[in-house]
Design goal:
The chain is α+β, with helices and mostly antiparallel strands. Helix content is 18%, strand content 30%. It has 3 helices and 8 strands, in the order E-E-E-E-E-E-E-H-E-H-H. Pfam families: YceD.
């Protein structure tokens, strides 16, 4: 925490038309009052890791939240959910995965002890009794996405020799490897076998 805080520039006013912005004025800064909020917010920029797993632009984030007025600000709790798409990190098949994250964030009132003793990157602020949920939700959702998504927990991946999915290969599939030191003898044996077959069974010495 900061002991001596320098004056900070006033945050930009939040636009009520922005679906990420929540108006808390009806809570009236009376500790104990609460308000339920459900919203479906369009995703304008894909979230996640491209070519691995993302919540695509054009999809939606579903918010189911409770806003509660407390002494130091407004406590936001609930869930955010969405559908992510990507590719299995083992077999590369396309996958679709439901993602749901729990949210708990305090937004501090201007002039509160919390606002005076913390930096904004530690605890976000209310601006004109409004909350901007976007940074909080985006960070939580991105962190919840798997770094190595799987189509199934027991996915065996691909055969490193032929690149075919192990699940599609017959039992006992394998690729025989010959020690390079014996490769010349194998070639010679194959050539001699081929010559004998070409001569036919009726050839006489």
């Amino acid at each position: 925490m900061s002991e001596n805080k320098s004056p900070q520039a006033r945050p930009a006013q939040l636009d009520d038309r922005n679906p990420w912005v929540l108006d808390t004025r009806e809570l009236g800064r009376h500790a104990g009052l609460s308000k339920a909020v459900q919203r479906s917010i369009p995703v304008e920029t894909a979230l996640g890791v491209p070519d691995v797993i993302t919540i695509d632009a054009g999809s939606s984030l579903e918010l189911d939240l409770m806003l509660e007025s407390v002494v130091e600000g407004v406590l936001v709790s609930g869930t955010a959910s969405a559908v992510a798409t990507g590719h299995c990190s083992r077999c590369l098949d396309p996958i679709t995965e439901d993602v749901e994250v729990d949210l708990t964030e305090l937004f501090a009132y201007p002039g509160s002890a919390t606002e005076e003793t913390t930096d904004e990157d530690e605890i976000p602020r209310l601006v004109d009794d409004r909350i901007d949920l976007e940074p909080t939700v985006r960070d939580a959702v991105v962190l919840a996405l798997p770094l190595a998504p799987l189509c199934t927990e027991d996915c065996q991946g691909l055969c490193i020799e032929c690149g075919v999915k192990w699940a599609d290969l017959p039992p006992g599939h394998g690729h025989e490897k010959i020690d390079p030191r014996w490769a010349a003898l194998v070639d010679r044996f194959d050539n001699e076998t081929g010559d004998d077959q070409a001569d036919g069974p009726g050839k006489q010495a």
